[in-house]
Amino acid sequence: METYLNFLLLVVSICTRSVASFELDPTWPDTAVKEMKVYGTGIVLNSEGNLIVIHRSGIMQPGAPVNQTIQEDVVLVVDSVTGKILQTWGKNLFHWPHGIAFKYDPITKVWNDSAILTIGERFISGSDTTHFCTPSDIALVPGSGDFYVADGYCNSRIVTFDKNGNYLFEFSAGSADTPNPIPFNITHSVALAPSSNSTEYLVFVADRDNSRVQVFNPTGSFLYELNSQQFGAAGMPMMFAVTHAPHAGDKFGRIYVTYGLNQNANFAEVDIINGENSKVGKSYAIVPDGEIGDWYEAAHDIAVAKDGNTVFVAVSRADRLILRKYKRNMGGGSGRRMGGSVLILLLTFVLVKWN
Ligand SMILES: *[C@@H]1O[C@H](CO)[C@@H](O)[C@H](O)[C@H]1NC(C)=O
Ligand SMILES: *[C@@H]1O[C@H](CO)[C@@H](O)[C@H](O)[C@H]1NC(C)=O
Ligand SMILES: *[C@@H]1O[C@H](CO)[C@@H](O)[C@H](O)[C@H]1NC(C)=O
Ligand SMILES: *[C@@H]1O[C@H](CO)[C@@H](O)[C@H](O)[C@H]1NC(C)=O
Predict the structure, then answer these.
(1) Which residue among 192, 196, 223, 224 has the greatest number of ligand 4 atoms within 8 angstroms of its CB, and so is best to mutate?
(2) How far is the CA of 91 from the centre of ligand 2 (A)?
(3) Is Signal found in the keyword set (predicted)?
(4) How much is the average pLDDT of 284-312?
(5) For the whole model, what pTM was predicted?
(6) Whose C-alpha lies nearest to ligand 2, atom 11?
């Protein structure tokens, strides 16, 4: 007698791996903010996580009335949760404001419209150590109070100052194709990030019209660059903004970059591997808001919460303040995706014959 035992074990396991992605919060900001007829250019988060916005009233391009400052408050503090305006200031100070950073915490400091330090001469352009020509951004060195200015549209240089506004040094482009570096073509944004050397930091420069982000040591020696191909971008997108967030769990934090061209606006995360290397990660399309119709494509500035899980973007546009808020979705809830699913198929067939 022969008995055959067929034993079939089939295990199919489909595991859904969490795939982090960013999702737009369409309810933010408050309608009153969405409807403001102003041209938003710069954003930064305060220590409470609320968004400080600088805008240019209704002025989109240079061409503001000559030698006049904007008469209305151009700085808004917007609640990062409710999207409501908490505070405004900055009237009659700026002609064509572009970027913003902060050193003192606006929560504990009472702001008014008097400047404590001004570098450059109002309405006078220049390229020496006491003048700028359309500067666009500023980054503060934690601790020392020194700062880096991206001087910007016509000088295309990075200039550094000590905390009292004394000129230190300046630098221009380095390049991956040294010994013939391509000069900067609009140093649009500058950000600092920790490096592998604990006392040092890295200087990230968004070289807007060269479609690249260049990385320097604190004294302006070129280290490496991130080009548009590394961001997975076709053609020559403009690199608008760079910012840094410590991002819990990462040794050196992450750099966030906005870029785009022709109605195509994106932001991307960059992992800082060490002082000599960074890796461009996933990028996210900043899609137009159907409600308000056409738009100007510049993803002009970006601000990221310390934990890296909330991203704010200011999209520049002729006649309306466009602020976007994205939350990192860790893979749960409605945003759950099957990407990265693991399929394990184990098939065992046992044939036993008894005699
Ligand atoms: C603007 O102001 C500067 C400095 O006060 C002055 O030199 C210049 O002539 C003014 N320009 C015009 C067009 O008024
Ligand atoms: C603004 O604040 C500074 C510092 O607190 C003070 O010295 C200055 O007088 C104030 N200016 C006005 C116009 O209130
Ligand atoms: C800078 O980029 C613009 C395009 O945005 C281009 O027209 C211009 O020739 C570039 N300037 C230099 C010096 O390469
Ligand atoms: C870090 O320090 C080492 C040793 O001092 C140096 O060789 C290296 O270039 C530094 N890295 C950066 C990014 O500055």
Answers:
(1) 196
(2) 14
(3) yes
(4) 81
(5) 0.85
(6) 114
